[in-house]
Amino acid sequence: MWPTVFDLASSKKRIGEIETEQQATNFWQDRERAQRLTQELAELKKETDEMLRLEQDLHDQRELLEMARAESDTKALKDVHQDIDRIEESLAAREKQLRFDGPHDKADAIITIQAGAGGTDAQDWAQMLERMYLRYAERRSWPTTIVNRSLGETAGIKRVTFSVAGKYAFGTLRREHGVHRLVRQSPFNSDSLRQTSFARVEIIPKLAEQELPENFVDTFHKNYLTLNAAKNNAEVSSHFEVKHVKSYENATLSELKAILSEEKIAAGISAGVMAGAE
């Protein structure tokens, strides 16, 4: 049976399990795990309270509707219908979350935009996409952090990587993954010729530290030189290196160093790449 966002029984059971764990004397010995469980508990309680409230609202409106009909109260009927419309909107919003059934859909997202064929026009197109995603995140009140950014020689960008923090950020944005094409009269051509430009958008989940394999960051650093050599067609033996190099085959040495300068972000990117490849 497919899980749904309306599975109140499972949510209540999970709330009970976490609250039982919180009563243990050693609960805060592992602070990261304790914080993760506390956050999960808060989200579960919020969702459960909201669904119980909607359920109660429906029950109340049903009774009011019967009373209004019995008394032929036109004004009361109008008010009830307005309240029912409001409840339907809330339920519709909740139903949209049914799409987010992937293992990492609730995670933050990491977006990489790489200019493709098309020269300056492609770099300008890549910057347009960057602006579009950043503005979309801003409208959703999702904080963004630039990891690295490489400017084009004339205009636009060659490559940019940034994180987007927000519930269901990855689930919402993941369908943008792929090659994006723009056809237009080039503003960078004196003859205003028709130009086709390409840019690749890669979207992966940013995994929390507790989701990373043991000693992941150490392994990442240990294999740095091998990774950089591998992207230049050197032989790669380990499963980890193959998956990582596959995603960064076009990365420059300076870009790899920029990513490595932020260990937690680097770990999140790398683990996200591996999770997305599985």
| Low-confidence blocks of residues | 224-267
CATH first level of the largest domain: Alpha Beta
> What's the total count of β strands?
5
Which strands sit side by side, in order, in the main sheet?
2-3-1-5-4
* Helix proportion range: 40-55%
Sheet with most strands: 5 strands, antiparallel
Provide the CATH architecture of the largest domain. Answer: 2-Layer Sandwich
Strand content: 15-25%
Output the CATH topology of the largest domain.
Answer: Alpha-Beta Plaits
What is the rounded distance between the termini?
23 Å
Total tally of structural domains: 3
Indicate the overall shape. flat
**Helix count, per DSSP?**
10
Query: If you average the pLDDT, what whole number results?
Result: 76
What structural class do you assign from the helix and strand content?
alpha+beta
Order of helices and strands: HHHEHEEHEEHHHHH
Q: Over the alpha carbons, how many angstroms does the gyration radius reach?
A: 25 Å
